[in-house]
TrEMBL record:
Name of this protein: Ribonuclease D
Region (Disordered) residue spans: 1-26
Keywords: Hydrolase
Record carries keyword Membrane: no
GO biological process terms held by the UniProt record: nucleobase-containing compound metabolic process
Keyword Flavoprotein: no
GO molecular function, one term: nucleic acid binding
Length: 427
């Protein structure tokens, strides 16, 4: 007896498989790895026309930091170039001839820092990932966007490989070349969709803000980004996390390896909670059994010991010091009216985002909303809210949509008996 086909099987049979983009149209170019080849590439891209598709591959999870190990470009009249920034760490000559071109990137914020390190900075850009969010696409990964807009499948099986490998295998290079193969076509199709939705000017304002943004400032306490830190309760335990993170970071930088390959975050948290007093006790702690962790066991043990010996005054605070308002969960206890303002403003922004088919965070940065709700302008009117949000980086298109509704929502917010009780206050 044969089982009846499922609805999913019937749908798969009814929908033909999209064609796979499997090879660059012009063939796979050789990797540019010497000054003579770079000079030829610069000349070719200077003579090219129109936007330039740009991408970069990093060795995240393998090497220390986020530097580029391959830069890919494609432009009409110039074709595709694959450049090795490990061999050519200064690409400022290429950046200079592309200074006036529109750069097309997917998730530009991920690539711009490592491109800047090699001397490449755009003055204008089109971010196909950010544009896809504004257009309301359900999935915004490059492969999904290519499928949605161009009806092509894009292989993504090499996205997490070690791009510091030399020589780079040909299948990896093909994958890298295909990442820029149709990026300009995606840009054109997406611009057309955004224009039809009345959102193209919104997107262009967002792209300009990305291009003009200053270099990201490293966090003051990067060790607080350890995954699972919420399970660490006491300040003494936080000191152990800090000490182990710093020891791991120093060793990872020295070895040029990803910190997580030496010691996983879970091991740091486990050690902080157990506070082992000897190297032997540390060796039996979860996460310290791998070869890389064992090779520096005395280093980790010394870090733990130093943290346990710190005087109370030198222990880290429970929460990072900042210039912003307290965590929202503490607002109901500290300032119930501010909590009511935030709840009302969030509801207004969420409704607007749904109305316009936008992710909430792309309509307005949550931090800007929190800060204005905590310390609103007086009087609480649309123009004051507009100015306060603008000071926090909101773009004109965002202000046109949210300033008046947010001001009205906050002005009408009231503390009532139906409001939730006080939330616990953090130290």
């Amino acid at each position: 007896m044969t089982n009846a086909p499922t609805q999913q099987q019937e749908q798969e049979q009814a929908e033909p498989e999209l064609p796979m983009l499997s090879a660059p149209a012009d063939g796979l170019p050789p990797v540019v790895a010497d000054e003579a080849a770079l000079a030829r590439t610069v000349a070719a891209f200077a003579a090219g026309t129109g936007p330039v598709a740009v991408d970069a591959e990093r060795a995240s999870g393998y090497r220390y930091g986020q530097r580029a190990f391959l830069v890919q470009l494609r432009r009409e009249g110039a074709g595709t170039a694959l450049i090795d920034p490990d061999a050519l760490p200064d690409l400022s000559s290429l950046g200079a001839v592309l200074a006036d071109a529109e750069w097309v990137l997917h998730a530009a914020n991920q690539d711009l820092p490592c491109l800047a390190e090699v001397g490449m900075r755009p003055t204008r850009l089109f971010d196909t990932e950010l544009g896809s969010r504004i257009a309301g696409l359900p999935r915004v990964g490059l492969g999904a966007v290519v499928e949605e807009l161009l009806g092509l499948r894009l292989a993504k099986e090499h996205s997490a490989v070690d791009w510091s490998t030399r020589p780079l295998p040909e299948p990896w290079l093909t994958y890298a070349a295909l990442d820029v193969e149709v990026l300009v076509q995606v840009r054109d199709a997406l611009a057309e969709r955004l224009a039809a939705q009345g959102k193209l000017e919104w997107a262009l304002e967002e792209f300009a803000a990305v291009a003009d943004a200053p270099a990201p400032v490293p966090p003051a306490e990067p060790w607080r980004r350890v995954s699972g830190l919420h399970a660490v309760r006491s300040r003494r335990q936080l000191a152990v996390v800090r000490a182990l993170w710093q020891a791991r970071d120093e060793e990872a930088r020295r070895r040029d390896t990803s910190p997580g390959r030496l010691l996983p975050d879970s091991a740091i948290v486990a050690a902080a909670r157990a506070t082992p007093r000897t190297p032997q006790a540390l060796a039996s702690t979860s996460g310290f059994t791998g070869r890389a962790a064992k090779s520096k066991l005395q280093t980790w043990a010394d870090a733990v010991a130093a943290a346990l010996a710190l005087p109370e005054a030198d222990l880290p605070a429970h929460t990072p010091r900042g210039d912003g308002p307290p965590p929202p969960r503490a607002w109901a206890a500290k300032d119930p009216l501010a909590a009511a303002r935030l709840g009302a403003a969030r509801a207004a922004v969420t409704a607007l985002a749904e109305e316009h088919g936008l992710p909430v965070e792309n309509l307005l940065q949550p931090d800007a909303l929190r800060r204005v709700a905590w310390a609103p302008p007086q009087p609480l009117e649309a123009e004051g809210v507009r100015a306060a949000l603008a000071a926090r980086g909101a773009r004109p298109w965002q202000l046109d949509l949210v300033a008046a509704p947010v001001a009205a929502a906050m002005a009408q917010a009231r503390v009532t008996e139906a409001d939730p009780g006080p939330a616990p206050v953090e130290d």
